[in-house]
Design goal:
about 375 residues; alpha+beta; Catalase HpII,  Chain A, domain 1; ten-stranded antiparallel beta sheet; two-stranded antiparallel ribbon; 9 helices; Catalase_core; oxidoreductase
């Protein structure tokens, strides 16, 4: 493990990390709130459009509403330490709190193998600023900026007469946004694994790793499973089968993923999350994530966390990708709203996540 400075420079660096993340979040809030231009898509507008498209609210996250908490640690391989000063790339056994979820607005929706899955993580080095990241299983995002996001939510508005979005409106989105067609096709035809445990999760947006000499390297990252991968199974009658299978697997043994950093090539679009990067880009295995515990969000350790993609430590900075600001501002507003709401029970209950021994103990 690298020796950390305990003098003034080390203290200053740690305080810079503490201040940097809130400052970035404040800029994201101001940007999405229209502070830089009256024509911007605002936080309140996005939340209103999410609600109109079926987001449940009532104490739950506005998107990725159905989820479960997990815990474990991250062991750095050291291979990314020359590209970034972030402590997580050089330390061993960094505590991690995380969350698996489905990208849906309703917390009790039935599990579907085709629904986008997410992994969100909070890395907590004991003596350095933390790092948060939210990842999805598609390799790209079919959005380019705030206007695209707003337009997409508008096409997903629930028709009161049917209780569903208008299919013609949804189909018209890509007609009116042809620059997103390739990304939409990539998402629609992606490989779908059997569950959360054997899925790969992508950062979607690009970031810059900052080395000790100030050199910046554009990257995207992905959590790639160490478990064997299998295609999606037929759906069962259990509406929570994806989560139930994840719980059973973690109870059986810890699950692991490799943090793979993809370095941008000369022709990769760094600031556009809808663009796919080249297949032959250089990759670095930055370390291994191990998840060994699982808990319901009803009192679980991830419930009060916003996995904001701009909560970054020194050594990682945002790219100019505008969706980063949109995600950050939306996460902040969603967190603010749900913090003041009364929350009902989660579909993935404490009984479902308990070990067999814990269940028997409660019965006795």
């Amino acid at each position: 493990m690298a020796t950390k400075s305990s003098g003034p420079p080390g203290v200053a660096l740690r305080w810079a990390g503490v201040v940097a993340a809130p400052a970035a979040l404040a800029l994201g809030f101001l940007w999405a709130g229209g502070g830089f231009s009256p024509h911007r898509v605002t936080q309140d507008r996005l939340m209103s459009e999410m609600h109109a498209s079926g987001s449940y609210g009532h104490g739950f996250r506005r998107r990725h509403a159905k989820g479960v908490c997990v815990g474990g640690w991250f062991d750095a391989s050291g291979t990314a330490a020359h590209l970034s000063d972030a402590a997580v790339f050089r330390e061993r056994h960094v505590p991690v709190v995380g969350r698996f979820a489905l990208a849906v607005g309703q917390p009790d929706v039935a599990d579907n193998p085709a629904t986008v899955r997410s992994m969100a993580l909070r890395f907590m080095p004991p003596d350095a600023p933390e790092w948060r990241t939210g990842m999805n299983d598609p390799p790209v995002l079919a959005l380019r900026d705030a206007r695209d996001a707003s337009d997409q939510f508008l096409t997903q508005r629930i028709d009161p007469s049917t209780g569903k979005p208008d299919p013609a409106s949804m189909n018209g989105f890509l007609t009116n946004h042809p620059w997103l067609q390739k990304a939409a096709d990539e998402i629609a035809h992606r490989f779908v694994s059997s569950g959360f445990a054997d899925d790969t999760y992508h950062s979607l947006d690009s970031f810059l790793l900052v080395a000790s000499d100030g050199a910046k390297t554009p990257v995207r990252w992905a959590m790639v499973p160490a478990q064997s991968v299998a295609p999606a199974d037929e759906r069962t009658g259990d509406p929570n089968y994806l989560f139930r299978n994840l719980v059973a697997e973690i109870h059986e043994h810890p699950l692991q993923w490799h943090l793979m950093m993809t370095l941008a090539g000369a022709h990769d679009a760094v600031d556009d999350p809808s663009q796919i990067w080249a297949d032959d880009d250089r990759q670095i295995d930055a370390g291994t994530l191990t998840l060994a515990t699982v808990e319901s969000e009803d009192g679980g350790p991830c419930t009060g966390i916003s996995f904001d993609p701009l909560a970054l430590p020194p050594g990682i900075v945002p790219s100019a990708d505008p969706i980063l600001q949109v995600r950050s501002a939306a996460y902040m507003r969603s967190f603010f709203l749900r913090s003041g709401e009364t929350r009902g029970p989660s579909a993935v209950s404490p009984v479902m996540t308990a070990t067999p021994g814990q269940v028997e103990g409660k019965r006795s």
